[in-house]
Specification:
The complex is a heterodimer of chains A (about 160) and B (about 475). By secondary structure, chain A is an alpha/beta fold. Chain A has helices at about 25-35, 50-55, 95-105, 130-150; strands at about 10-15, 40-45, 60-70, 75-80, 110-120. Chain B is an alpha+beta fold. Among the domains of chain B are: about 5-45 and about 430-445 and about 465-480, no CATH class; about 230-330, no CATH class. In chain B, the strands form six sheets. A five-stranded antiparallel β-sheet of chain B has the order 4-3-1-17-18. A four-stranded mixed β-sheet of chain B has the order 9-8-7-12. Chain B has a three-stranded antiparallel β-sheet with strand order 13-14-15. Classes of the chains: A alpha/beta (about 160), B alpha+beta (about 475). At the A-B interface, strand 2, strand 3 and helix 3 of A face strand 2, helix 1, helix 4, helix 5 and helix 6 of B.
Chain lengths: ~160, ~475
């Protein structure tokens, strides 16, 4: 797959908009929806689940967008290595496990990236973003818009989730 | 409990793997290292009821989906049913009721499929003591790829049903006070019909797997985390299983009715909630039996036990086989939850089949209105059990009171009982062995608890096992 060629990109934002900054992922993909970028499918859900592996298998690249409780501010963009390790909460899965499932169950090994947007308030109910998270969202939105238009996923890797 | 808490040693295990949210198990030991009490702590975020207060009632069916990322559809439907009462509608149009039922069966199908294929099947395929690195969905994918595919596709099918009835996953708006906002087009119906036969075949395969496993291991499972208990669910007026609508029935461990055909708004006369100092979660119980003896189980096991029959042929045949194992008496085996869950999965597929062949789904009469009421209660049988939504709404259309009893709350004491029994059997000295941990997880997992649906943000899911002595000194610590 050539990185500059048009590819089928899946952007999966996940999190709970009713838990303050946990809604950063859905908020980002919602703002992307208006742009209707060619070749880009967007989806939002509360969390990643096993059936997402089947959807990933139908695309060439997947970008997971999530709120991050730590790591580089305002965001990081890191590659995902398919992994057999499941998280301890497998009503939902990690990006690594999902890529592993797409590979092991559907024979589709797909490159994946996580856009982790730094959030700060997670423990309250509220359909709002904290001011700092909202600012981070703006910068992440500009960043991912550029990356999607240019298709330069690997070169765009930045920051750390540590 | 015979001894005071001060004389008991404490072992804490947190959180429990493959259970939603964050959980912690504390085992209280006596001087002889027998487990005297088990506490399954649930880190519940408080304040959701307050979050709803002040909202206009018509927003509630959407807002309540924020409570849980695992079962948003169940909260959506329970709230919508309650708001039917608020707008004075007791009976929906046929199209509205059948669309909601279709949504509900899709939800239960996808939830049960996920639980069985991806959370339970690793335990029964590889054994409780298998390496946790293998005993998971990835291990199933490697060794039993057909099952892994079936699990994913059954779950995906259920999600398709939800998408076509509820709308967007994050902002589902299908059910509204007094009805529904869309019907099912012929194109959508045909899309869903296309894969249904395959889903039924896979569902029946899963049912056989669950049944065969339970029957083959019956002697051992009969003692594993099992105990006599009361059971509660809604049932239809003729006693049939009904997952969407009905009246309350509670039976004891022998099958005697404690109460029956109780109208949903009267739940408060029959069910009370106890608060315990060590847990945020409330402990519901049947008032007439008191807090100590009145706790009950909900969910698939309870529903199959309480129903007189199931109104779809394949599930009914399976129910009869299930009840025959205990000579028609309630089945109190904790691990039988899995078999019961698969009976319900088949029932849901049969119901979806029935509904997709019903022309009412293409009807145009979607919403009704009646005379506004100040208060309403609704119950649905969510995948994990009976879900209560109770609201009061003022003259400005704002919610002034909300009380929710979720199924994991009702199953809180049964899970404690299961953990205590398993832990007492497998705990050896002051060591938390892998075997002990595995068996506790298996027992809790049978209930498919959903623990508060905590935020899931990256980097928050370690497994930490800690062992303390009675003075609070750390004796042992394990992470997985």
């Amino acid at each position: 797959m050539s990185e500059s060629a048009p590819v089928r990109v899946l952007v999966l934002g996940y999190g709970n908009p009713g838990r303050c900054d946990d809604g950063l992922g859905p908020a980002l993909v919602e703002s992307l929806a208006a742009e209707a970028l060619p070749g880009v499918t967007i989806d939002a859900d509360y969390q990643l689940a096993v059936e997402d592996a089947a959807v990933i298998a139908e695309h060439d690249v997947v970008i997971f967008v999530d709120a991050a409780v730590k790591g580089t501010e305002p965001f990081y963009f890191r590659p995902v290595i398919p992994s057999p390790v499941v998280s301890f909460s497998t009503h939902s899965l990690s990006p690594e496990s999902l890529l592993g499932l797409a590979r092991d169950v559907f024979q589709k090994e797909r490159p994946g990236y996580v856009l982790g947007i730094r959030g700060y308030e997670f423990n309250e109910f509220g359909e709002r973003l904290s001011p700092r998270a909202a600012a981070n969202l703006e910068r992440a939105r500009d960043f991912i818009g550029r990356v999607l238009r240019q298709g330069n996923w690997a070169a765009a890797v930045t920051g750390s989730d540590e | 409990m015979a001894q005071s808490i001060e004389k008991l040693n404490r072992i804490a295990i947190e959180p429990v793997t493959r259970v939603e949210g964050h959980g912690k198990v504390t085992l209280l030991l006596d001087d002889r290292n027998h487990v005297r009490q088990a506490r399954f702590h649930i880190v519940e975020f408080r304040g959701f009821e307050r979050f709803i207060q002040g909202r206009p009632y018509w927003e509630v069916p959407v807002i309540v989906q924020r409570l849980c990322g695992i079962c948003p559809v169940s909260h959506h439907l329970a709230a919508a049913k309650a708001m039917d009462g608020i707008v004075g509608v007791d009976q929906l149009t046929p199209t509205a009721e059948k669309m909601r039922r279709l949504m509900h069966y899709g939800q239960i199908l996808q939830s049960h499929a996920l639980h069985f294929f991806h959370l339970c099947s690793p335990d029964i395929l590889f054994g409780f003591d298998a390496d946790p690195q293998i005993r998971n969905v990835i291990g199933v994918a490697a060794k039993h790829k057909d099952l892994a595919v079936q699990g994913v596709m059954l779950r995906k099918y259920g999600q398709e049903v939800i998408k076509r009835t509820a709308g967007k996953k994050i902002h589902g708006t299908g059910a509204i006070p007094g009805g529904i906002n869309k019907n099912l087009s012929i194109t959508e119906r045909d899309e869903l019909l296309k894969d249904l036969a395959q889903m039924k075949e896979w569902g029946l395969g899963a049912l056989k797997l669950a049944k065969d496993y339970t029957v083959e291991h019956l002697d051992w499972l009969a003692d594993f985390g099992s105990f006599p208990s009361n059971h509660l669910s809604i049932v239809r007026e003729d006693g049939a299983m009904d997952l969407y609508h009905g009246r309350l029935r509670a039976i004891d461990a022998e099958g005697n009715k404690i109460f029956d055909q109780v109208a949903v708004p009267r739940y408060i006369d029959y069910i009370a909630e106890e608060v315990r100092p060590w847990s945020y979660m409330k402990f519901p119980f049947i008032k007439s039996l008191g807090a100590e003896k009145g706790w009950y189980r909900v969910g698939p096991l309870a529903r199959v036990n309480t129903a007189d029959f199931i109104d779809t042929p394949l599930a009914e045949e399976a129910r009869r086989e299930f009840m025959a194992v205990t000579d028609g008496k309630p089945n109190n085996i904790t691990m039988a939850y899995h078999w019961a869950r698969m009976i319900e999965l088949v029932h849901c597929i049969e119901k979806i089949d029935e509904l997709l062949h019903d022309g009412d789904l293409q009807g145009e009469d979607l919403v009704l209105k009646g005379e506004r009421r100040p208060e309403a209660v609704a119950i649905v049988e969510a995948p994990r059990g009976t879900l209560f939504h109770h609201y009061k709404v003022d003259e400005n259309d704002q919610v002034v009171m909300a009380n929710l009893i979720v199924s994991t709350t009702s199953n809180n004491e049964p899970m404690n009982q299961a953990v205590r029994k398993v832990a007492d059997q497998y705990l050896d000295g002051h060591q938390i062995t892998e075997g002990l941990l595995n068996h506790i997880e298996v027992a809790i997992r049978a209930y498919d608890p959903c623990l508060s649906c905590a935020t899931h943000a990256l980097g928050r899911m370690p497994l930490l096992v800690q062992l303390f002595d009675s003075r609070g000194n750390l004796l042992d610590r394990k992470t997985r």
